[in-house]
């Protein structure tokens, strides 16, 4: 494969090719005339079975006569399509239902309205936004040839991806700071709680500001070929500068707004775990209430650390793929086959599936969330009805036995009182006769 930066470079190399043996005519520009791919119905530029590809972003104004054939997607097998559709649908359903229940449980239960749970609700809203704007778009784009979702989703898909990534990572950082000050510096906890709503608003404003360039530079492009309209969606950043704005932008998002907060949170939770483990005192010197509070703190911290670890695991492959694409040795070369195949798909899918995993973590570590899930899905009411029926059925005998015991006790009490009364009457009569 040869990759040309411009039309002139291609003409210079074409002039050196010996065409005597082929007998094909040349046109006025020195190009071999185009042949047509009968299976695709589109024109391609072919010389001695060598397909030359060109970077479309470099020659937008040129009259290009060949198709970027290397980027044509092969036909997706039926089994692969069924697997991807099934798994993606399951992830979307779990994410939408689970995160909606998290928001509902906190809204319904007044005791759940704590600073940490407010941040968890904010995280759940980010997960819902990922599911609505990104997950299904990724599936459609993977199964279709070219971009088929229009200019609106071309902009909003990547915008929502960066928006939710930044909002989620900043929310997790706020949770880590809240736990850090609440445990290590207990006097600062009230200050953090009063400002929770302000911090959440700042998180969304900053996230919108970071993702907003994609609303400008992310565009849908079209190119009409002989029998085919090519449509694609890509970033169109300013060219001709001494630096690459696209590379700087994605490097900033990956390093400053992903890896750096992860390091900060790792340090914060390490200090929290060390503080809790060092404050444990053996024996009966700790009161029962204090031990219960320490246990609850550890459960909450285990839940938050699990959320962080799952988030890092799910988003890390995508961040690595972005950095690789922007910092590879030769940016003019097309990306390798292993990158454009399953690796890129799995990296993006894993990042989006994080939205479906968080509700399981909430319900697994927090009893209140677990009870809320049971109530919403009817398990709690079903169990309560069964228990009530069993209790009411077996309660008649218990009540009868209780009434019998109560009657016997009353009779015994009355007999005992009457006996005492008669004895005292006899004694007083005997004394009077004397």
TrEMBL record:
InterPro entries: GPCR_Rhodpsn (IPR000276), GPCR_Rhodpsn_7TM (IPR017452), NPY_rcpt (IPR000611). Belongs to the G-protein coupled receptor 1 family. It comes from the Eukaryota. It is a multi-pass membrane protein. The keyword Manganese does not apply. The chain crosses the membrane at residues 40-61, 81-107, 119-139, 159-186, 198-217, 248-272, 303-325, 345-365. It is found in: Membrane. It comes from Owenia fusiformis (Polychaete worm). Keywords: G-protein coupled receptor, Membrane, Receptor, Transducer, Transmembrane, Transmembrane helix. One of its GO terms (molecular function) is neuropeptide Y receptor activity. Residues 98-362 form the G-protein coupled receptors family 1 profile domain. GO terms for cellular component: plasma membrane. This is G-protein coupled receptors family 1 profile domain-containing protein.
């Amino acid at each position: 494969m040869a990759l040309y930066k411009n039309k002139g470079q291609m003409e210079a190399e074409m002039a050196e090719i010996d065409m005597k043996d082929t007998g094909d005519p040349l046109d006025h520009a020195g190009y071999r005339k185009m042949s047509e791919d009968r299976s695709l119905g589109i024109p391609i530029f072919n010389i001695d079975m060598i397909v030359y590809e060109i970077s479309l972003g470099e020659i937008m104004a040129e009259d290009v006569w060949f198709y970027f054939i290397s980027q044509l997607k092969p036909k997706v097998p039926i089994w692969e399509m069924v697997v991807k559709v099934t798994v993606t649908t399951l992830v979307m359903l779990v994410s939408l239902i689970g995160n909606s229940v998290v928001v509902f449980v906190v809204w319904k239960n007044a005791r759940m309205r704590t600073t940490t749970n407010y941040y968890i609700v904010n995280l759940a809203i980010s997960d819902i936004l990922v599911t609505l704007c990104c997950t299904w778009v990724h599936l459609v784009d993977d199964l279709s040839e070219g971009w088929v979702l229009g200019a609106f989703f071309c902009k909003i898909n990547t915008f929502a991806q960066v928006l939710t990534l930044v909002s989620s990572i900043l929310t997790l950082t706020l949770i880590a700071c809240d736990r850090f000050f609440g445990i290590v510096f207990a006097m600062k906890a009230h200050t953090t709680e009063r400002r929770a709503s302000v911090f959440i608003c700042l998180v969304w404003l900053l996230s919108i500001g970071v993702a907003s360039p994609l609303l400008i530079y992310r565009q849908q492009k079209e190119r009409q070929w002989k029998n085919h309209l090519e449509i694609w969606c890509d970033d169109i950043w300013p060219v001709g500068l001494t630096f690459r704005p696209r590379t700087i932008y994605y490097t900033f998002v990956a390093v400053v707004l992903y890896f750096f907060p992860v390091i900060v949170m790792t340090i914060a939770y390490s200090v929290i775990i060390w503080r809790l483990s060092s404050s444990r005192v053996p024996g009966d010197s700790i009161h029962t209430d204090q031990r219960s509070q320490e246990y609850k703190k550890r459960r909450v911290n285990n839940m938050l650390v699990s959320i962080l670890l799952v988030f890092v695991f799910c988003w890390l492959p995508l961040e690595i793929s972005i950095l690789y694409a922007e910092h590879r040795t030769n940016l003019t070369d097309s990306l390798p086959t292993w990158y454009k195949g399953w690796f890129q798909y799995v990296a993006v899918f894993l990042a989006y599936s994080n939205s479906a995993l968080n509700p399981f973590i909430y319900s697994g570590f927090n009893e209140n969330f677990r009870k809320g899930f049971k109530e919403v899905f009817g398990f709690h009411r079903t169990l309560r009805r069964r228990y009530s029926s069993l209790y009411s059925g077996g309660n008649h005998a218990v009540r009868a036995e209780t009434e019998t015991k109560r009657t016997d006790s009353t009779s015994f009490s009355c007999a005992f009182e009457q006996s005492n009364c008669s004895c005292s009457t006899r004694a007083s009569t005997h004394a009077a006769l004397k």
